């Protein structure tokens, strides 16, 4: 959009008291007065904050991802070093999470024998996605690491390579392509229609939908949180008279949305890993 003229002042990164609950927002009017501004995609493309103009340039979103990754590694290193025969609460929580992925996802979908080969991948994916998703509700971070397409694409490509390599390993390249592109039990002339659809499904739609579903849910959650808490600040600080009472409504909605985002973040991690396991299972089966 073209820049405004006549001395317009910008407030894209002005901090406000309640904005720390959601993100740093342009809540002040672009004309210098008070006013409410709805959230925008600008939050997902922050300016560099470190090493600007170098190959190591970092912006706020990348820094959030780095913090989440470091914390996740520290948590599991500490859990491994303090592991005891009789686990404490911390060890119990970690083991419950790992057992959940192993039993309820890997073994349930792939079977015990096949699960052994892929459980490490699925466990790593689950906890990594969970950590990156939940940064959106952590004060001071306030944005999900998976809310920009780069990281979801990387995770989807990881899943893509794994289920393709598992299929080729189990059936050979020819057997995998035959099982994937030529479903058994249909008349030969139907392959003219079915084979292109199967190709799109296996090689394009599966990884694309993994990435887009994850990103879209995190983007939507962030925008809703920002909207609720921005409105709270506007009604509480800028509105007049009885309008200030609406701040209680929007604050309650913001708290409810925070809890809902916690649920969605965990659910999206679960869905991503379940679908990855399903795709691996489909790729190693000779007929599906």
UniProtKB/TrEMBL annotation:
Please cite one Gene Ontology biological process associated with this protein: proton motive force-driven plasma membrane ATP synthesis
Topology in membrane? Multi-pass membrane protein
- List localization entries: Cell inner membrane; Cell membrane; Membrane
- PROSITE patterns referenced in this protein's UniProt entry, alphabetically: ATPASE_A
Instruction: Name one cellular component (GO) term.
Output: plasma membrane
InterPro entries, sorted: ATP_syn_F0_a_bact/chloroplast, ATP_synth_F0_asu, ATP_synth_F0_asu_AS, F0_ATP_A_sf
Indicate the transmembrane segments per the record: 63-80, 119-137, 143-164, 185-205, 211-237, 249-282
Task: Give the matching HAMAP family.
Answer: ATP_synth_a_bact (MF_01393)
The family assignment reads: Belongs to the ATPase A chain family.
What is the name of this protein? ATP synthase subunit a
The species this protein belongs to is: Cellulomonas gilvus (strain ATCC 13127 / NRRL B-14078)
């Amino acid at each position: 959009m073209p820049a405004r003229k006549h001395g317009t002042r910008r407030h894209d990164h002005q901090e406000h008291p309640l904005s720390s609950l959601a993100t740093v927002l342009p809540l002040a009017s672009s004309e210098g007065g008070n006013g409410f501004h709805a959230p925008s995609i600008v939050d997902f493309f922050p300016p560099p904050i470190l090493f600007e103009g170098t190959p190591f340039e970092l912006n706020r979103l990348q820094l959030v991802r780095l913090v989440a990754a470091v914390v996740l590694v520290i948590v599991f290193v500490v859990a491994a070093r303090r592991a005891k025969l009789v686990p404490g609460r911390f060890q119990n929580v970690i083991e419950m999470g790992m057992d959940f992925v192993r039993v309820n996802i890997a073994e349930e979908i792939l079977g015990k024998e096949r699960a052994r080969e892929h459980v490490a991948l699925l466990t790593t994916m689950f906890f990594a996605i969970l950590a990156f998703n939940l940064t959106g509700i952590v004060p001071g971070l306030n944005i999900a690491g998976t809310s920009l397409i780069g990281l979801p694409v990387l995770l989807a490509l990881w899943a893509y390579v794994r289920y393709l390599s598992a299929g080729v390993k189990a059936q050979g390249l020819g057997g995998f392509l035959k099982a994937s592109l030529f479903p058994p039990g249909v008349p030969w002339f139907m392959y003219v229609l079915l084979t292109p659809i199967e190709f799109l499904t296996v090689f394009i739609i599966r990884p694309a939908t993994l990435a887009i579903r994850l990103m879209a849910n995190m983007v939507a959650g962030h925008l809703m949180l920002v909207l609720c808490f921005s409105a709270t600040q506007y009604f509480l600080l800028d509105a007049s008279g009885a309008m200030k009472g609406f701040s209680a409504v929007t604050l309650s909605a913001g708290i409810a949305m925070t809890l809902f985002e916690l649920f969605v973040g965990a659910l999206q991690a679960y869905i991503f890993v379940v679908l990855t396991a399903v795709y691996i299972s489909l790729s190693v089966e000779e007929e599906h």
